[in-house]
Write a structure and sequence with these properties.
This protein has about 220 residues and is of the alpha/beta class. The protein has one domain: Rossmann fold (3-Layer(aba) Sandwich). The chain is about 45% helix and about 15% strand. A hairpin with a 5-residue loop joins strand 5 (about 130-135) and strand 6. Helix 1 crosses helix 9, helix 2 crosses helix 3 (about 50-60) and helix 6 packs across helix 7 (about 170-185). It is globular, with a radius of gyration of 16 Å. The structure holds adenosine monophosphate (AMP). The site of adenosine monophosphate (AMP) has 18 residues, from helix 2 and helix 3. Adenosine monophosphate binds near residues 36, 61, 64 and 92.
């Protein structure tokens, strides 16, 4: 495996499997998994000023403003474990965020290695999001049908309680998908023009998607 810094940006709609795949890739690539949604949820849980700022946007299924989001993720990327790369999941979600990331990496003499775009049809996303459950302790994602835990309601890894995200309710999901198509999908072209985009078929079993990703990332 190469020792060059590896920044991998996973792009895809909500429910495409970014979080699930990032957790698997972290084990394979030995890179930290930086998920902006997880960072926001942690701030919300701890009732930090940042969490309180983000709360209303998250509840509506809207994006948190760019300045707040960019500052939070950049702080995370400056930590030593990200010196050699990271798997970014859920960030960037706007062109302004993508430009901020490019600039921050360039200032470090680094750049994005590859941007896998996990493509999944909308109707599949709605079904996946409806059955999604997360561990309260480690944040690991399950699906009640497609990726169930060994014991219902309990995380396989740490025994934590599984819960459904508030923003996984159908009304909010529709808004999140709309926001994705309006504000985030332009990133597909942004990264395609830079020659780093690789399209991955996300409408396959979890292991098959991981294999496609692994091949794309290590190519
Ligand atoms: P996720 O877990 O990635 O689906 O993110 C959950 C929610 O956190 C989103 O619906 C947004 O409200 C907020 N969020 C996460 N990442 C970003 C981002 N890069 N930009 C703006 N808002 C974000």
């Amino acid at each position: 495996m190469t020792t060059e810094p590896r920044f991998i940006v996973l792009v895809g709609p909500p429910g495409s499997g970014k979080g699930t795949q990032a957790a698997r890739l972290r084990e394979i690539l030995h890179l930290p998994h930086v998920a902006s949604g997880d960072l926001f949820r942690e701030n919300l849980k701890n009732q930090t000023p940042l969490g309180l700022q983000a709360k209303a946007y998250m509840e509506r299924g809207d994006l948190v403003p760019d300045d707040v989001t960019i500052a939070m993720v950049m702080e995370r990327l400056r930590r030593p474990d990200c010196a050699n790369g990271a798997i970014l999941d859920g960030f960037p979600r706007t062109i302004a965020q993508a430009e901020a990331l490019d600039e921050a990496l360039a200032a470090r003499g680094q750049r994005i290695a590859v941007v896998p775009y996990i493509a999944v049809p909308d109707e599949v996303l709605v079904e996946r999001i409806g059955g999604r459950r997360l561990c309260r302790v480690c944040g690991r994602a399950y699906h009640i049908r497609f990726n169930p835990p060994r014991q219902p309601g309990i995380c396989d890894v740490d025994g934590g309680e599984l819960y459904q995200r508030d923003d996984d309710r159908p009304e909010t999901v529709r808004q999140r998908l709309k926001v994705y198509w309006e504000q985030t999908s332009p990133l597909i072209d942004y990264y395609r023009r830079r020659g780093v985009l690789v399209e991955i078929n996300g409408d396959q079993p979890i292991e098959a998607v991981t294999e496609e990703l692994r091949a794309a990332i290590t190519a």
